[in-house]
């Protein structure tokens, strides 16, 4: 299996990473490109394609794409970011919220597929998860619980949110928040 999974954060501290066969292929932060300032974005077609190209990859080789949720509200339950095309125009990218909504029973891993022009004019399918869920899963995946395949409780307390408690069960791939 040659699946390549790619994660993208378009906003401040922008970055892109890819995994193949459970091994990290690359992880590139925007501020490391051309010595850009701290907190730089990675939100242009040119940059996203260049990062992939620098690793010998093309957008059509990516099997699955996840985009970090950090969007501005554009409606009741919808959020949006933008990528900048080669002409300097902003193209909409529907994403998850910064944090999961307290008191809802929805599993934060059950997000639907979206589509946007991430790398050029062709629509690309991806999923977006809340920034808080991203933190929760990154914490779990780097913990001894993941290595043993055990469930775990995870606390996420990022700068702009109240603490969130998650329970991740790897057997069910289920991550309800409490």
How are the SSEs placed, and which strands pair?
Elements: E1 4-9, E2 15-20, E3 23-29, H1 45-54, E4 64-69, E5 72-73, E6 79-84, E7 90-95, E8 113-116, E9 124-130, H2 131-141, H3 144-148, E10 152-156, E11 164-168
Parallel strand pairs: 1-4, 4-9
Antiparallel strand pairs: 1-2, 2-3, 5-6, 6-7, 8-9, 10-11
- The H-and-E topology, N to C, reads as EEEHEEEEEEHHEE
Backbone CA Rg: 16 Å
Assign a percent range to the helix content. 10-25%
- Tell me what the CATH architecture is: 2-Layer Sandwich
Alpha-beta content class: alpha+beta
- Low-pLDDT runs: none
> Which strand-content bin applies to the residues?
25-35%
Named CATH topology: Nucleotidyltransferase, domain 5
Read across the widest sheet, the strand sequence of neighbours is 3-2-1-4-9-8
Number of domains: 1
Give the tally of β-strands.
Answer: 11
Question: Strand count, sense and closure of the main sheet?
Answer: 6 strands, mixed
Bulk shape: globular
- Spatial gap, N to C terminus: 36 Å
Could you name the CATH class?
Alpha Beta
- Taking all residues together, what is the mean pLDDT? 89
**Count of helical stretches:** 3
């Amino acid at each position: 299996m040659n699946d390549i999974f790619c994660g993208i954060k378009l906003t401040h501290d922008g970055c892109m990473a890819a995994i193949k066969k459970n091994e990290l292929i690359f992880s590139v932060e925007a501020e490391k490109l051309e010595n850009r300032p701290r907190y730089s974005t990675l939100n242009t077609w040119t940059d996203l394609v260049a990062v992939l190209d620098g690793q010998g990859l093309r957008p059509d080789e990516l099997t699955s794409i996840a985009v970090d949720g950090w969007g501005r509200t554009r409606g009741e339950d919808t959020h949006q970011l933008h990528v900048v095309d080669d002409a300097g125009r902003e193209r909409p990218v529907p994403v998850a919220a910064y944090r999961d909504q307290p008191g809802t029973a929805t599993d934060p891993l059950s997000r639907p597929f979206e589509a946007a022009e991430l790398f050029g004019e062709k629509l690309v399918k991806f999923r977006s998860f809340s920034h808080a869920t991203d933190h929760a899963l990154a914490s779990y995946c780097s913990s001894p619980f993941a290595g043993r395949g055990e469930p775990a409780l995870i606390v996420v307390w990022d700068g702009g949110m109240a603490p969130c408690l998650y329970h991740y069960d790897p057997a069910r791939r289920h991550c309800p928040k409490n």
